[in-house]
């Protein structure tokens, strides 16, 4: 901290004997105990807080006890770039099942402690965690990103995440990492099974034969298939 040496307007023979230096993060400087120095410069004895707004002023004291205060100035501390703060995904909910083809993507805004820094958001979506595609790269959208028609298909599981990026390239991925959801707009019937045994038209010598058929699959990701077997005598 440096300041000009004042001249006492009452008597130029008087001299400045000390300075009271006030520094605080509150602009009122109320309750601040000043440090006293005899030169027109000052270095704090401990580090100031990072990413903080400080206010300061100096009072000059002459050899007759007169005190004159300077104007109050302010400054911001920023010795290194800080990454964006943690933030969370909002919608779709993790593991949700959706019946629409244009799901909106919503997330909380991150903050950045660095003065005048700004944040962009990179939204990625895909069917596999290791091969997501960027579908949005831009500023925070309070109304969510909803230009998604044509990006999803029925009966499919999707993964998504959002990365906050500041002007210096520092990044923060949403809390909890990847989230997933399923698109399932309507219930689909299982794919038909194929009978395996006993063979059609065969003669069974065992009166308690085992019956086999191929396993049926269901296009709906969370559905489970059960079977009902019917048989009846011929003739």
Automatic annotation (TrEMBL):
Matches recorded under InterPro entries: FN3_sf, Ig-like_fold
Name recorded for this polypeptide: Fibronectin type-III domain-containing protein
Organism of this sequence: marine metagenome
